[in-house]
Protein 1
Amino acid sequence: MTRRWWLILGAGWSWGVASAQPASVTLKNIRHDFQALNNCAPVTAMTLLGYYGASVTQAQAAAVMKDYPGDPQVTSLELASYLGRAGLQSVIRYAGDAELLRSLVAAGFPVVLQQRLQRGSNVAHFRTVYGYSAGQFLISDPLLGPSLRLSAQRLAELWAYYNGEYLVAFPPARAGEVQRLLGSDYSAAANWQHLRAHGEQDIKARPRDPYAWWGLAKATLRLGNAALASDYFERAVNLGVPTMYYLYRQEAFEAWTQAGRHSRTLSVTQRALQAFPRSKELQYFRTLAGRAVGQSGG
């Protein structure tokens, strides 16, 4: 039996336990479709629902999930909400690793990753892992095809852009299996502690990596320290987070709003909205900041 250990700061040691895994696994009934523009989330929904026996087309999913035709952003939460309408339960967690992916796939659960599209790209992209063999993973990619193979090293490199975010969808009757496989990470609070510990290690190893700072900042925010999280987000921004990143992730604006740094939100959202003027998330945080500044007389 193999064990996956991690340190949960302030709470001692915790672990997830997985049975010995087969050397290779390929899940069956994985549907694929090549995505229309910005449609990786609808295709991912089609793939997951098809695996669990429901039929939906890319176009049908897009009509529900997107705010308008061509909307470039569907969040993991929106994907989970759509899957929930079809009766699937989802967990979204961070600081995932290759061993966890193998454990989930071996148990019959395809895993959705939020990753960088490719090296050097700033585009975020959903991919579904449904198999593995020695040193590599088998992936259904809405853009690159139904049988993309990535080495564990390349997968981790692309995954760091989103701090190891993953989504597992499953029928509610199988929740106990997912809880056993995730161990402590099944708890959202414990997973934020895991991400914080992971982030602290990452910034020591890569102190000029803006995405490592962002992950640490997000965990710190979710654990209740908005002031410190604001400082960490500032570090990430100053190290060079690309404008497109704000289309996908708005946690910095959450932290700055809670910490009263409204002028910072106004400055960054102004730049981001020039590139993505229809983003409802960016509009929301800019409106909040504008109201706060107006009320304070600033």
Note: The mean pLDDT is 92.
Protein 2
Amino acid sequence: MPATKPSAVDVARNAYAQAYQELAKMLDGRYPLSFKRAVFLSENAYFDNRLSYDEFNAQITTLAQVCRLLKSANDPYFLYDRADKEQVARNAAVFMLLKDSTRLGKGRTLAPYRYDFDDFNGDRDWRNMFVTKLLVTHRGNCHSLPFLYKILAEETGAPAWLALAPNHIYLKQHNEKDGWYNTELTSRTFPNDAWLTASGYISKQTIVSGIYMDTLSAQQSVALCLVDLAKGCERRLGPVAAEPFVLQCTELALQHFPHYINAQLLRAEALRRQFERQTNAADSQRAYAAMEAAYTRIFETGYREMPAPMYAEWLQAVVKEKAKYQTQH
């Protein structure tokens, strides 16, 4: 009797399970930590493992080489003169690649990578959050753009750290002249911390609790991909069908990044749905206790939800009021 062909749901579940296993092995030290690989895994699962890592890696390798060429071409004109000049120049090259058109010779030009305000949260199409989509279209958002920057920074040896704000990801960097500074790829600027706090949704409590404006370690950066994996699974299978996987992913993510607010929120929502489905009193009580603990934890961070229209307005404020929010280098 011929083997039964697996259903589309089974294929998707298997793809997500494979990605989870590899990310888990990265986080517990069995595999080397690789943000590039982690990003690919979280996106490839959405396509049932049909993407090619070799092709993805080749695209990244090519862009990294362009960054190195940009750095070499601009080295004679680079005026920064501190001891960390090499690292600063590497970051400058990555920023130039993403910000401006790059002439490649023989009439070829590499287009810049722009922010796409259409469906910037991936509400209509989760693929709009993907680096793989950004590489093809050169249109991204505050998720894919900083992810690509981080990948290229690691490829070229440029020190850069992901950081979080409400509904947002950006870069933090450091040099001997300016100290810590922010790189914002939505507006292609270097906004100061005043812009971040101007949203009104970053309080002292959220900074102290560690959910916003801190540099992320390599493990924490991979934990972001674990939550992306869970969100993608929700989109593919639906919230209820994906629930066990979401809880599995968020539990592991929070082990390695306890303050990650998106993991806390995703987990709390899954626990809320579990509670709402209970019909047995004892099960209902247990589900309520788990849900209450999750939401209490979120409340204690100082988190407040930022509405999407306000977020879009906040993003554009750094462009409209550049003089107010721009860090001068």
Note: The chain has a mean pLDDT of 92.
